[in-house]
Automatic annotation (TrEMBL):
Transmembrane segments annotated in the record for this chain: none
GO annotation, biological process: detection of visible light; osmosensory signaling via phosphorelay pathway; regulation of DNA-templated transcription
EC number(s) given by UniProt: 2.7.13.3
Protein name as catalogued: histidine kinase
Phylogenetic classification of the source organism: Bacteria, Pseudomonadati, Myxococcota, Polyangia, Polyangiales
Uppermost EC category: transferase
Record-linked InterPro entries: BphY/WalK/GraS-like, GAF, GAF-like_dom_sf, HATPase_C_sf, HATPase_dom, His_kinase_dom, HisK_dim/P_dom, HisK_dim/P_sf
Length: 753
């Protein structure tokens, strides 16, 4: 039958549920002090620990319901009630108080804090003035802090802290205990009496400190057990809701932990949290072979040292790796410089294989991209690398950085590559098909020194199952296989920096390629425009001659020609005229980019009036009207060219229109930046599947023949004019008919090319 112990009253604690034990609400305290729980409104005592009489000289019956200021007198006539009612009474700790009706102790330390709706007051016998004072503790703490600050690195700072805490407390052993990512702990610094067994370098399994205990360490910086053999004192009367003692200095600890300490031969203990950037990093763990109380002042000095070391942790760790970091930065620069000289990323990385492996202290590197696999240094066989690549694609995907010291633990199927790749450190470079750079480390069979067997947290004896993690704390060696040397933080940071540098280099190359392509396209367009300009200019004269000569032939000899020949001559005249129209359109299209525009501030309303006069005949013939709901604004443009834009869009709106009352509206929306102008009609509309061809020169829509076929250049020229004004043009045409052309113009004077 497994032994059972109780945490809070009514809460059974056994070896099967210790990780869920509610250690913050035990319902009892350690008896080196007494506890009172007050209601904040009237400061009346609602709950007390049963040992209260030893300090106040009065049993629980004479205290419950009474206001605390009636029971305690503050030192030097202070105002106890004001302190208790302040927003943060703990800022005044400790309060020196004395029982008003006498008691076993002349002066008491009152330590106050708020716990939800309750006010908690804990009383301890005050230290004698000759034994300790804040000034003496300050001197020792100040000297300790100066030594910690001047330490060269993390381990030296931890050694100094252990020595100074031992000097301050007089404990037999002080250890600095650091957690790993799995919450196993390792003693990395120790100050001890010469006649006790060293624990330096030993590891402790995560089960020694369960999650709820780590949570309390994160919330409350200091815990103390002056006498491991204490008998707890219950809090009465038992409250309806448990009293949260997370921040209590007297909180009774788990019987599991008490047995653990007894198994270690510890008579008193204290621990101070080490918290790095909001995460529990480790502990300052103090042990004494016999009972040893510490005054509030000394405890505060220890907490101050712990808080200062916590602040220094990040800086000291960086200082420890400073030399290595400078080396890694130089290697990163070397790799990037080599890659930048190669057009292909894989070729550049392959060329810098030596620096690449040194960067992460790896024996091999694998480069993956698409189906290509490039091994560098010591690496698995190609087929095994492809299996590794497939695993990375599934499990790493696009994570920027991934690392593991034991790939076989994550994927047993890859255990066969442990000789070359037990450890992997991987970066991904985003592409449609991602790049992966994977550093490889071989298996290193390691011996890990544990304090007792980590696989056997509970031991049995003749008396039954022994409560606590184990009885044996002697050295226990574990052989660790299929694991590589762990990747150091500086190495992980270095490959992260390399990843960013490679991405920046890749983006820079893309920009250069895009600019080159754009420049080539612009040169090609310019050459085509020049060619079109020359062709259009040079063909005008021959075509005019053809048209003139065909006219002369018809006038002089038309009667003598057969009807078939006359038809041929008329066809020649029509084709020459049509070709002239196309050449004129090509000439105008190419001219738009070549001629200088005359920009100025123009009244667009006056431009529209000019256009309306030019189209007056067409408007009368079709019975069409031009609408302008409000006067158009002044704009910065080339007056003649913007007139062509409006004329072309309005003419199209009238031409492609079968409405009995055709109209075209010209308006604008000044709430946008830049202003959006529109030319809207109630015409036939534009088929959705043909809108993408609107602005392509010589492209004719399916409706063109029905309404009088044009050259298909008007909208292309219009678009070029708008673009010369640093604007854009687009069209919308709903299914029911009608089209709206929108365009913008630059809002300020521009340097036209």
């Amino acid at each position: 039958m497994m032994q059972e112990h109780r945490g809070g009253r009514g809460q059974r604690v056994d070896l099967t549920n210790c990780a869920a034990e509610p250690i913050h609400i035990p319902g009892r305290i350690q008896p080196h002090g007494a506890l009172l729980a007050l209601s904040p409104g009237d400061l009346a005592v609602r709950h007390v620990s049963l040992n209260i009489g030893a300090l106040l000289g009065s049993g629980t019956e004479g205290l419950l319901g009474r206001a605390l200021p009636e029971l305690l007198a503050p030192a030097e006539g202070g105002d106890l009630e004001s302190v208790l009612r302040s927003p943060d009474p703990s800022a005044m700790n400790p309060l020196k108080v004395r029982p008003r009706n006498g008691g076993a102790s002349a002066w008491l330390d009152a330590i106050v804090h708020r716990a939800g709706e309750r006010l908690i007051v804990e009383l301890e016998p005050a230290a004698s003035p000759g034994d300790v004072s804040f000034s003496s503790v300050y001197r020792v703490s100040h000297a300790a802090i100066e030594r910690i600050q001047s330490a060269e690195g993390l381990f030296e700072a931890c050694d100094v802290t252990a020595e100074e805490i031992k000097r301050l407390t007089g404990y037999d052993r002080v250890m600095i205990y650091r957690f790993d990512r799995d919450w196993n702990g390792e003693v990395i610094a120790e100050a001890r009496e010469a006649d006790i067994e060293p624990y330096l370098g030993l590891r402790y399994p995560a089960s020694d400190i369960p999650p709820q205990a780590r949570e309390l360490y994160l919330r409350n910086w200091l815990r103390i057990i002056p006498d491991v053999g204490y008998q707890p004192s219950d809090i009465v009367p038992e409250p309806d809701a448990p009293i949260d003692l997370s921040f209590s200095v007297l909180r009774s600890v788990s019987p599991m932990h008490i047995q653990y300490l007894k198994n270690m031969g510890v008579g008193a203990s204290m621990s101070v949290s080490l918290i790095r950037e909001g995460v529990l990093w480790g502990l300052i763990a103090c042990h004494h072979r016999t009972a040893r109380p510490l005054s509030f002042e000394i405890r505060q000095g220890c907490e101050l040292c712990g808080r200062f070391l916590s602040i220094q942790l990040a800086a000291k760790e960086k200082l420890e790796d400073r030399g290595r970091k400078l080396e890694l930065e130089a290697l990163t620069d070397e790799v990037v410089a080599t890659v930048s000289r190669q057009e292909d990323l894989m070729a550049g990385l392959s060329e810098s294989a030596g620096a690449l492996m040194k960067l992460a202290g790896a024996s091999g590197v694998a480069l993956f991209h698409g189906d290509a696999v490039t091994p560098l240094g010591l690496s698995p066989a190609p087929e095994e690398l492809r299996r590794l690549h497939a695993w990375i694609r599934r499990h790493v995907a696009d994570r920027p950085v991934f690392h593991s010291e034991s790939l076989a633990r994550l994927e047993p199927a890859l255990a066969g590559i442990k000789d070359a790749a037990s450890g992997v450190l991987c970066i991904s470079i985003p592409e449609p098909d991602p790049w992966y750079v994977v550093w490889l480390r071989p298996e290193v069979i390691q011996t890990v020194n544990w304090s007792g067997n980590p696989e056997k947290p509970v031991e049995s004896s003749a008396e039954g199952t022994v409560l606590g993690p184990r009885r044996s704390f002697s050295l226990w060696k574990q052989i660790v296989e299929r694991t590589a040397v762990a990747w150091r933080p500086a190495e992980i940071e270095a490959v992260e920096l390399l990843r960013r540098a490679l991405i920046e280099l890749d983006l820079t190359r893309q920009v250069v390629r895009e600019r080159s392509a754009r420049a080539a396209a612009e040169r090609s367009n310019a050459e085509l425009e020049q060619f079109g300009y020359i062709v259009a200019h040079d063909l005008k004269e021959p075509l005019r001659g053809i048209k003139s000569f065909s006219t002369f032939v018809m006038e002089d000899d038309g009667a003598a020609l057969s009807s078939e020949s006359q038809s041929h001559m008329r066809r020649i005249d029509d084709l020459a005229g049509r070709t002239m129209e196309l050449i004129n359109s090509l000439y105008e299209y190419s001219r738009v980019t070549r001629v200088d525009f005359s920009f100025g501030e123009i009244d667009l309303g006056e431009v529209l009036a000019d256009v309306e006069r030019r189209l007056a005949g067409t408007l009368r013939q079709r019975g069409a009207v031009i609408r302008a709901p409000r006067r158009l604004p002044r704009v910065f443009c080339d007056r003649i060219r913007i007139g062509e834009v409006l004329a072309n869009l309005i003419a199209n709106g009238i031409k492609y229109n079968v409405s009995p009352e055709p109209w075209v509206e010209v308006g604008f929306d000044e709430t946008t930046i830049p202003t959006i102008f529109h030319v809207r009609d109630n015409g036939v509309g534009i088929p959705a599947d043909e809108r993408h061809r609107l602005f392509t020169i010589f492209e004719r829509l399916s409706t063109a023949a029905q309404y009088g076929e044009g050259t298909g250049s008007g909208l292309a020229i219009t678009q070029r004019i708008v673009e010369r004004h640093k604007g854009k043009i687009w069209a919308e045409s709903p299914p029911g008919g009608g089209t709206t052309f929108y365009f913008t113009l630059a809002e300020a004077p521009l340097n036209d090319p």
